[in-house]
Design a protein that fits this description.
The protein is mainly α. Helix content is 52%, strand content 6%. The longest helix is centred in the N-terminal third of the chain and has 14 residues, at 2-15.
Length: 142
Amino acid sequence: MLELFAGELRRLRATAGLSQEALSERINYSASLVAAVEQCRRPPRLEFTERSDRVLDADGLLLRIRETMIRESVMPWFREWVTIEQEATALRSFQPLGAPRPAPDRGLCPRPLYRDSKDPTGPVLVVAPAAWRSFVTFAKAH
């Protein structure tokens, strides 16, 4: 995708009749950065892309290519989360193998490993997936 962006930037610049130096002056970036982006040595930043798109009258083409380039650069299963993270006001982690510490009078949990937590809710019980499945099966049976 970086090659596509670089090729379109080069094509739009040539169509506009601008040299790398002339484009760099109009978008207020150095000519060496324009050359680096066109040669795929540097990925384009958002502001660079916005200014280039506006100066070269690309009607959002460069912005769309950059957006696709960023989306495609992550693993397929994580692509949806890139957009969510950009819009998020807070990020929290959920650990599916963690469970609150059981009450002392209950002895149903399989050999737990407790770890101290800086979280105000206190220590967390960490159970291996296989042990958790056997515990759930045992609990359902009784």
